[in-house]
Specification:
Layout lengths: L5 H4 L1 E2 L5 H4 L40 H19 L11 H4 L3 E7 L7 H11 L12 E7 L3 E2 L5 E2 L7 E7 L4 E8 L1 H8 L18 H12 L8 E4 L5 H13 L11 E3 L4 H7 L2 H12 L1 H4 L2 E8 L10 E8 L4
Parallel strand pairs: 1-2, 7-8
Antiparallel strand pairs: 2-3, 3-6, 4-5, 6-7, 8-11, 9-10, 10-11
């Protein structure tokens, strides 16, 4: 992993704490406009999922999630066939525009072990948990102000905007820990009355899918080998609700531990999960980075290491080669 210049790009911070491990992953903020569904609630870093929903917005309905997922999947297929529009490519310099990068050796709780044994088996490598030294825990945190391309400084946002994830090149995986996007910070700053010029109040690099790909392209010399995108302890209210509904429909009538429930592109459940805020990040990464990643189609697993607690929902997207589907 010597290709990652820590001194140039990153800033050290204090060791990972148990509290940090309990922070909940959120979602991408490139909300599909395909069906008019607007995600207008904040994803706070709180361990109790029920406290993350802004009361202004009704919860995402299962049928709406399925429709959004199907529309996104059509865009994934179009991109894989070379008929879509590639996303903007960001550089390490974009990470410095209004952002502070905190980095340390990563860490995940032991309840990820079985999932990583499966990942190791899938990749034909050691079936074990990656070591802390094999993970880059990177938190991209906002600093004031953001500078827009025309030189305008944006100072309205709070400092809480950030994207935190473990980047694990040796296991071709990214595990998202916590996200509070600039878009959500705009919403909080204006108390839900979102200005029409919102896109001028966020930095160019403002989506989880773009942040993941930009940092992933720094930590590894072979970014095209990205295979797994996981979300740790989902707190996003819409995603949590859809996952709960799917768990309750399963044979166990509730959440189960790894291997949990697995769904492919031929299932309604897959489309519903792709149509959640946590699914958007994977979808848009595949849409925008189709040329770099090649023809990929996701498969998704959901599980809970503590089914009896009624939470701790986790999600793993397997970006399988298109020809393997």
């Amino acid at each position: 992993m010597g290709e990652f210049n820590l001194h140039k790009y990153l800033v050290k911070r204090s060791p990972l704490t148990e509290k940090a491990l309990l922070l909940n992953s959120s979602s991408d903020e490139h909300v599909p406009q395909l069906l008019g569904h607007q995600n207008t609630w904040s994803n706070a870093s709180h361990p109790h999922p029920s406290r993350t929903i802004n009361k202004r917005a009704p919860p995402l309905k299962y049928e709406a999630a399925v429709c959004t997922g199907r529309a996104l999947y059509e865009k994934i297929l179009a991109a894989s066939e070379g008929t879509g529009n590639p996303g903007h490519t960001f550089s390490p310099e974009d990470l410095a525009n209004g952002w502070i990068k905190d980095e340390e050796k990563g860490g995940l709780d032991d309840f990820w072990e079985n999932a990583f044994k499966y990942i190791g088996k899938t990749l034909n490598i050691e079936e074990r948990m990656p070591t802390n030294a094999e993970m880059f825990l990177i938190d991209l945190m906002q600093k004031k102000p953001f500078q827009l391309p025309d030189g305008t400084l944006v100072e309205e946002l709070e400092k809480a905007a950030h994207f935190e994830a473990n980047y694990i090149p040796v296991y071709s995986a990214i595990v998202v820990i916590n996200v509070n996007s600039p878009r959500n910070q705009v919403i909080k700053r204006f108390q839900g009355n979102v200005p029409a010029d919102i896109l001028r109040r966020v930095p160019p690099l403002n989506r989880l899918s773009d942040v993941m790909w930009t940092i992933w392209s720094i930590v590894t010399q072979t970014p095209n080998k990205l295979r797994f995108i996981a979300h740790d302890n989902v707190s996003n209210g819409d995603t949590f609700g859809i996952m709960q509904e799917i768990f309750n429909k399963g044979a166990a009538k509730g959440p189960i531990n790894w291997p949990g429930l697995k769904f492919g592109i031929d299932s309604e459940e897959f489309m519903a999960l792709l149509g959640t805020p946590n699914g958007y990040a994977t979808a848009y990464l595949l849409i925008d980075r189709a040329a770099q990643l090649g023809r990929r189609v996701p498969e998704v697993s959901i599980f809970s290491p503590f089914p009896e607690m009624g939470g701790w929902y986790r999600m793993v997207w397997d970006l399988r080669p298109f020809t393997a589907v």
